[in-house]
Amino acid sequence: MYLQDLIFTLQKYWAERGCVVEQPVDVEVGAGTFHPATFLRVLGPEPWNAAFAQFCRRPADGRYGENPNRAGAYFQFQVGLKPSPLHVQDLYLDSLRAIGLDPSSHDIRFVEDDWESPTLGAWGLGWEVWCDGMEVTQYTYFQQAGGIDLRPVTCELTYGVERLAMYLQNIDNMYDLQWDRHVTYGQIRKPWEVEYSTYQFEELRPEISFASFDTYEGECRRLLARPAGPLVLPAYEFCMKASHAFNCLDARGAISVTERQRFIGRVRAMAKACAETYVASRARLGFPLLPKALQAQAVAAYEAAAEAGVNAAALAAAAAVADHAPGQERAGSEAAHA
Amino acid sequence: MPDIVNPQITDAVAPTASASASDGRPADLLFEIGCEEIPAKMLARALAELPAAVEQRLAAARLAHGAVRALGTPRRLAVIVKGLADRQPDLVEEVVGPPVSAAFAPDGSVTKAGQGFAAKSGVDPASLTKKEVPGKKGLYAVAIRNVAGGDTRSLLPAMLRDLAAAIPWPKSQRWGWGMTAFVRPVQWLLALYGGEVVPVAWADLTAGRTTRGHRFLSRGEVSVASPAEYVETLRAHHVVVDPEARRELVRAELSRLEQETGLRVRPDPALLDEVIHLGEYPVGLCGQFDPSYLEVPEEIIVTAMRTHQRYFAMEDQGGKLANRFTTLMATVVKDPAVVQRGNEYVIASRLADAKFFFAEDRKKSFAEWNKKLDAVVFQAKLGDRARTIGHKVQRIARIAGALARHVGADADTVAAAAGVCKADLASSAVGEFPELQGVMGRHYARHFGLSDEIARAIDEHWWPKGQGAALPPGAAGALIALADRMDTVAGCFAVGLEPSGSADPLGLRRAAIGIWLILLAHEGDERWASLWPVLFDEARAALAEQGVAMADTASVEKFFRDRLRGIFVDQGIPTQDAEAALAQSFRDPIDARARALAIARIPKEAREVFKRVANILDDARKKHKLEPADRVDPALFAADNTVEQKLHAAMQEAREREAEPRRRRDYAAVFDSLVQLQPTVAAFFDRGGVMVMDPDPKLRDNRLALLLQLIQPYLAIADFRLLGAAS
Fold it and tell me: Which of A157, B137, B369, B554 is deepest in the core (most CB within 10 A)?
């Protein structure tokens, strides 16, 4: 299976199960979790099912295109199911069958791997999924994001696109992957890896990234504190950009160990402020992704608890609709029916 | 007045035919919680704790039962209770009401208050009896009522629901709308009492009689006829639900592969404990890697295979690592060669990384790595002059140097090893496998041309690596280990980072225990026995040199004393005896242990009488502000009573017979001598009628002086005030 067919197949598979197929976010991110379709949508009481491929930049992992398994950027295919249906594992295993990994021919295992993102103030429990000893997917039940307790809970599946494709094409160097019938992964990606490794490790000017970080952080704060009302979506975009600036400085070796913790704390503070403002803004909009009949009571419960803070209010809104929402077997959407 | 209920369980209960459709005989109970994959360590713990939790609930519900057994796999946690009684025994309760004077009129008729009590207790007023109540005066009205025992079937749903909800997990999560928390999302519930379903309702599910077989080797739901058939039914669906049976199966698989390859699986009990909980149906598989990777130190290979992949290493009959590994699949596959290829690919890339790290590391030097450690923070609160690992290494070197001089160890080796003891922390190999710190340092030290002694000391300064683990065998490693740990403890205490409660995130307790264990292992060597004060002073001096002052040494000393007491108690010395020995002095742990062991031999009577002596002296000082003199005047002994003279004479004899044992520090012999004094001291107190605190100050002071002289020689060995009669 060509790499692009792997993405097509996963998109189609999850679309048929009720997921919105979004497009990658057009800002540099280190993981699909930063995509607003994940980080923001997991917050609050509104159901949401989405799938998308995301180009992820990890400057520190750059290897000038010379390491067969590691690179400064790679693709994740991410699925978010909120609330998590009871049979996510079955849905996931069927998706493996769809791309040609038959569990009766492989040793598929769910091995404990808890996930935490200090920059996003997020954590979850779950597994890495092993196929014949190789990690092919990260499988996480999000418990908190931006410091906010998540109800309903989102199940996030993150497929390692290159890993899976290498397995399916039975090759041991990612640059030899066939992107399609004619073009290899290396032909598309290798020049980028070479130039970006050189840039990130040798040419990047730390003072620019430091200044950018400060600018992004300032804009994020300013937009959240805007007297006429917060602009949370652009604010969060600056949070993503600040996080990437930090990753660049980290890869460049421009940040000492103690400063590192401080930078992580600054990004987390932005993520937290965005998360809280986002939930409040969704409440103001009437939680439009909830079924119409439930919107009013969710908003009422949110407002009644608002004095205790956004976290408590979001939990109250979820509790107010949980009893009336479809049961877990049918949670969210047709994701469970297909 | 509150009613007092005295429940009494009747001896035998005849089951009532109408109570339920049951036949009244005990039956087995099965409760299974189906779950998404439970992490191996958490599963092991839950399996260990579940039977006691079940027994506790059954006892609270007064339900008789037979054996309780926990079973489970990553996908299910189950308990089977054999022979669970089908109802609670009936109870006869005595409810105590008002006093007889209030409940009965003088003519014996029941008063209004008595009738009210009877009605409230649900008995006929005529049946009220009069009884004495323990702890109260007079007679009380008592209602005797029979309470029929509840039906097990009606009790079980709530009990099992509460049991499931109360299973303690180190980490639990929510899912769906998030109304339940459990280790992982709950998928199904199965509950059977005998052949009947127990409709437990929990986690948005209701229990039935179906379970599920192996995820890939079984389809759909599987019906279980009765608890007795559970294990076999699952076995038929490729689930080995008994962990011990899985362990046997894994062992059998490993020996099958040993037979097939002619190699041995290197024993790894911790890994075995983990892999039996990584699947429901373990099948062994052997793979290999390129022999060229064997050039890498085998610790790296074994660690890479174990931590990343949960593979067992294999070795030849001579114990030499082979280019093979063993893994346990969680299923039966069509073609094991496919799975083998996949695993071989994964380990090859892991080993390629390891080999690369090792090769790159050997191009570096300890000096280069040490420079990097100047930028790695050990503890930020120590301040700018002391915060980095580089600073710490300087302190370790200074402290270890002083220790080497004290014990007469090879100072050059200690200095050389101490200076590079943390260098490998900056190596790539340790970055990838932190548990190889020290081990890699040893390899690199040899590669960089340092002596074997230095190489070993770098490795051994991390020892002991856990509870019960080996202590550093060489002197250099042991001294650096002491210096490193004391620096950590003293530094953290100096900046207010002492452990509180059970939390000890910086591992200070472990560090202090390590220090004591290393010192205790040098029994018989006076230079090591007297090392602790040197260690403590040098550590403080080294910290002070870097601007870290310790204001309060008492709390660190108490911390160390408490750890030593814990070690003694673990070694079987009663807490009180350990405390009595340590209260006098803890700095020489070998001496303290000998004293504690000797104290443990003192019989109860002697403890009591000497404790009394110590308390009298204590009172005299504290309450009466009297300082007993250090001279006794025999002329002041009472003429009409010989107890003082006898005691005085017995003390002289004791002094003489103890002289030799004291020189040898044979505390047991000293205390045997002390025990011989006990009858004489007892006579002084009890039979002689001598009052210590005599109204005549002269007599009083002389008697206090006598008591002081009596106990003084033993006080350096034990604080008698801390000795009760308990032990």
Answer: A157
